[in-house]
UniProtKB/TrEMBL annotation, chain A:
Keywords: Cell membrane, Membrane, Transmembrane, Transmembrane helix. It holds the Pfam family BPD_transp_2. It is a multi-pass membrane protein. It is found in: Cell membrane. This is Branched-chain amino acid ABC transporter permease. The keyword Nucleotide-binding does not apply. It comes from the Bacteria.
Automatic annotation (TrEMBL), chain B:
Residues 7-249 form the ABC transporter domain. One of its GO terms (molecular function) is ATP binding. Transmembrane segments: none annotated. PANTHER family: ABC TRANSPORTER ATP-BINDING PROTEIN, CONSERVED COMPONENT OF ABC TRANSPORTER FOR NATURAL AMINO ACIDS-RELATED. This is ABC transporter ATP-binding protein. It holds the Pfam family ABC_tran. The keyword Nucleotide-binding applies. It comes from Caldovatus aquaticus. Keywords: ATP-binding, Nucleotide-binding, Transport.
From TrEMBL, chain C:
This is Branched-chain amino acid ABC transporter permease. Coiled coil: none annotated. Pfam families: BPD_transp_2 (PF02653). The chain crosses the membrane at residues 9-28, 58-81, 93-113, 134-159, 188-211, 223-250, 256-276.
Length: 339, 254, 288
């Protein structure tokens, strides 16, 4: 925690606030300033930057579910994929308006969450884990076999997206795609930040830390988890829709198990339960992918695996955890006998 | 019949396999009373508590809260009807500060935990009430804001009680509140128990006979899942069957 | 019809041999080991290498596959897995997915992405008719049924009759109590892990002809193993065995009669079975 103020005044103020203070604010400012900077500095890499924003949104959805509510899932790609196919199919069948497409995709994913939540949250967390895995694979197979609708393994062709707000058409350089993705990410990030700082968000943290106590406090734990599951589903659906709309193509990959696993990797790479962790992890992941996959693809997969193993053994603070630990050490050294 | 019992069970029974952990237990706690539940290990105290709170369902019998049958209600709805508990083994939030944990309990009491559109810190009244409650339990401001995992064990036991009190219960189950607290920290816990408002009906589940005889107005003795004896502390202490069960342990304190 | 049934039984038994080690990992250590299939894959490739490149006899290849997978299991258990006991499921999931990715990538790099084929020895080739031409069944399938049946029987007897088996069952039932009784749970687990990996390796080798073998093997069959264990429970041989048989028959029948639906059948079966029967292993770990 930051040091300033008398503690008596600080105590009530601490409630529900993520650890911020001057350094935190500066870091936040820096993080968001990096996006327009990247936009100006790397005009040739705008599609890559869009990928970062989309991956960040996906990681954010996982953070809401895994990092805050403590529900481990192996099937988050199901929502991503459903969102992508919803937006893609809408556009293929003549409705290319991006914002409503995005909303409908998120709504479809939320609906899937609502329908599957009772199945996932029914038994113990092990059973739930496997159900998420099974549901994800089911959806993948369904999309694979429903080739007349989804295009199957060839992917969904002919996605045409209208200009954003009727003003900005998707250009060849990916300018609109990037700014559109970034705008959606920023809005949904702000919403997520509001949610996790709310009483609902505090209750989710409580459930993750100790569900037994939450029952004893009178919390309808199941209902809160369903809400978190649905919300995370909607976020993943929105991310999928962004991918479909900005690339104007949907491939089966959107539903692959690999994507669920990579999402978790991004999240733990950046740090769990901190919102920014997923964003940072996604940026690191996408850039690393770009750099490493220029070598052989197997190499890339090998290093993802190695990263997962190391992160799992080393604990889940991630990049942000390292930063926080470093800052704490610095403050402790500087503070000396004070405080 | 005057006012209904604050908490009552009728023929409560729960079997695990062939073993009756709780067997036909009937209890009645008068409103505002201080009632203790004692019994040797394996007497069925934990199962009974779980039946009372709704963590598990009985095979037979009923639980009544202020005269209303709550047997079919899940745990969280019983809490909403005024039944709170503490745990024998701490059930806290290690990463949250006490002030956050109590605020969470208050938010739940006020029915706010479904709200996502306003930050917790905008609910200023909650934080103030939480700070006041913790201050009453002699939490220093610094302790309120430090992560729970860093608190001394005795303070964690107090936080257990604070979380239950935050719910403004009308019936409170205290499950061995001083268990494992080192002697130099136990006074505060006992004070907190003694200072519970008179309007709250208290069921104390306890091993420590000292505490039981100091605190309770009535005692129920559980053995092998059944009620062995019930009465005033004096009557229970004189009861030869109770002495037998405790092998002189209770007699030494009486 | 009978052919499909027998094929299903054979692949079900094979699945059991592949998966039974996982039931101990999950049941005894409450450890979600999604990388179990990697040991099967290791065994499969050892078998392919020895058989195809060095002409080692098939049965010797099987033994080598089992031994090398067991050795690999023992080494990984001591060096990596033990760090994650008692950690939460997310860590274990990440760790074991990571292992799968590494294993698949390494195999892909060393052996290529293609399906591996082996030539069975002549005495295991061909089909024989049974029941007056009622159906024909491959000799290899019968061999699988006999061999896996013998393994199932041996495991059952080992679990029920030996001291090690009774200690293992006690440990699976309640590791805390077992430790209190002075049972060396960690050592039992290490041994069982190696045996389970070895059996997976054997299953992988036996399965080259039936299940196929390529670098995606661990991911492709992960779901199958999880179903066997999740549905079957951990404390008996019978539960997972029946689950594996059921799964094998459903899978083969699904591929035979409903090829256009494909793997969808098996995933649906998994979800439905998990929902219908979350008892045993899963219910117990939930209650804790």
């Amino acid at each position: 925690m930051s040091g300033g103020g008398t503690l008596a005044a600080a105590a009530p103020a601490r409630v529900g606030r993520a650890s911020r203070g001057r350094w935190g604010l500066a870091a936040e400012g820096l993080f968001w300033a990096a996006w327009p900077a990247a936009y100006l500095a790397f005009p040739d890499y705008l599609p890559l930057l869009s990928q970062v924003a989309i991956a960040a949104l996906f990681a954010l959805s996982l953070d809401l579910l895994v990092g805050y509510a403590g529900v481990v899932t192996l099937g988050q790609a199901a929502f991503f994929g459903l969102g992508a196919y919803t937006a893609g199919l809408l556009a293929v069948h003549g409705w290319g308006e991006p914002l409503s497409g995005l909303l409908l995709a998120a709504a479809a994913a939320a609906l899937l969450g609502l329908v599957t939540a009772p199945l996932v949250l029914r038994g113990g967390d092990l059973a739930g884990l496997m159900v998420t895995l099974g549901l994800g694979l089911m959806l993948y197979e369904a999309a694979n076999k429903a080739a007349p609708v989804t295009g199957g393994a060839d992917g969904l062709q002919g996605v045409e997206i209208w200009p954003v707000l009727g003003l900005w058409r998707f250009d060849l350089f990916g300018r609109t795609a990037f700014l559109y993705s970034l705008a959606v990410l920023v809005l949904l990030f702000l919403l997520a930040r509001l949610v996790v700082s709310s009483p609902f968000g505090l209750a989710l943290r409580g459930i993750r830390a100790n569900a037994r106590r939450m029952h004893a406090l009178g919390t309808p734990v199941r209902a809160r988890l369903v809400a978190a599951y649905v919300l995370a589903g909607a976020y993943a659906g929105a991310a999928g829709a962004l991918l479909a709309q900005t690339t104007q193509f949907v491939s089966l990959d959107v539903l692959a198990f690999q994507r669920s696993a990579e999402g978790l990797l991004m999240l733990v790479l950046g740090g769990l339960g901190r919102l920014y962790g997923g964003l940072l992890g996604a940026a690191a992941f996408v850039v690393a992918h770009q750099v490493l996959s220029e070598m052989t693809p197997q190499f890339w997969q090998f290093w993802i695996g190695a990263a997962l193993v190391v992160l799992a053994i080393a604990g889940r603070g991630g990049l942000l955890g390292l930063l926080a630990a470093g800052r704490a050490r610095l403050l402790a050294r500087r503070g000396g006998g004070g405080a | 019949m005057t006012a209904p019992a604050a908490l009552e069970t009728r023929g409560l029974t729960r079997r695990f396999g062939g073993f009756a952990a709780v067997d036909g237990v009937s209890l009645a706690l008068a409103p505002g009373s201080r009632h203790a539940l004692i019994g040797p290990n394996g007497a069925g105290k934990t199962t009974l508590v779980n039946l009372l709170t709704g963590a598990i369902r009985p095979g037979a019998g009923a639980v009544l809260l202020e005269g209303r049958d709550v047997t079919a209600l899940p745990q969280h709805l019983r809490v909403k009807r005024g039944l709170a508990r503490t745990f024998q083994i701490n059930q806290l939030f290690p990463d949250l500060a006490p002030i956050e944990a109590v605020t969470l309990a208050l938010a739940e009491r006020e029915g706010l935990t479904a709200r996502w559109w306003r930050p917790v810190r905008a609910h200023r009244a909650l934080a103030e009430e939480a700070a006041a409650l913790l201050a009453r339990l002699r939490f220093a401001p610094a302790e309120m804001a430090a992560p729970t995992r860093d608190l001394a064990y005795g303070r964690q036991r107090l936080l257990e009680i604070a979380l239950a009190l935050a719910l403004k219960p009308r019936v409170l189950l205290l499950d061995e509140p001083a268990a494992g607290v080192p002697p130099e920290e136990s006074r505060e816990v006992l004070e907190a128990v003694a200072a519970l408002p008179r309007a709250v009906t208290v069921l104390l589940i306890e091993h420590d006979m000292d505490l039981v005889f100091r605190f309770a107005e009535r005692i129920t003795v559980l053995a092998q899942g059944r009620v062995l004896a019930e009465g005033t502390p004096e009557a229970v202490a004189r009861d030869p069957r109770v002495r037998e069960v405790y092998l002189g342990e209770a007699a030494a304190h009486a | 019809m009978l052919t499909v049934l027998l094929d299903g039984v054979a692949s079900g038994m094979l699945l059991f041999v592949l998966a039974c080690g996982l039931s101990v990992t999950l049941g005894l250590m409450n450890f979600v080991n999604l990388a179990h299939g990697a040991f099967g894959m290791a065994g499969g490739y050892v078998c392919v290498l020895l058989l195809n490149r060095h002409g080692v006899p098939f049965l010797a290849c099987l033994a080598a596959a089992a031994l090398s997978a067991a050795l690999l299991g023992a080494v990984l258990e001591r060096t990596l897995y033990r760090w994650l006991y008692g950690r939460d499921h997310l860590d274990q999931v990440l760790f074991s997915i990571g292992l799968v990715f590494m294993a698949s990538a390494a195999v892909d790099w060393l052996m290529g992405a293609r399906q591996q084929l082996i030539a069975l020895p002549p005495w295991l080739q061909g089909r024989i008719a049974i029941g007056d031409g009622l159906a024909t069944v491959g000799v290899y399938r019968l061999f699988l049924i006999a061999l896996c049946g013998a393994i199932v029987l041996a495991l059952h007897l080992g679990l029920v009759r030996t001291r090690f088996g009774s200690r293992l069952r006690a440990a699976v039932d309640d590791a805390v109590v077992a430790r209190g009784l002075g049972i060396p749970v960690d050592r039992i687990f290490a041994v069982t892990f190696a045996v389970g990996s070895g059996l997976a390796g054997l299953g992988g080798a036996l399965g080259v002809e039936v299940l196929g073998l390529d670098p995606t093997f661990p991911l492709k069959y992960m779901v199958y193993f999880l179903i066997v264990v999740a549905v079957g429970g951990a404390n008996t041989i019978l539960g997972p065995f029946l689950a594996a048989l059921l799964l094998g028959v459903v899978d083969v029948a699904g591929k035979y009669y409903l090829p256009e639906v494909g793997a969808f059948v098996i995933y649906t079966a998994m979800v439905v079975l998990l929902l219908l029967r979350p008892q045993g292993l899963l219910a117990r770990s939930a209650a804790r």
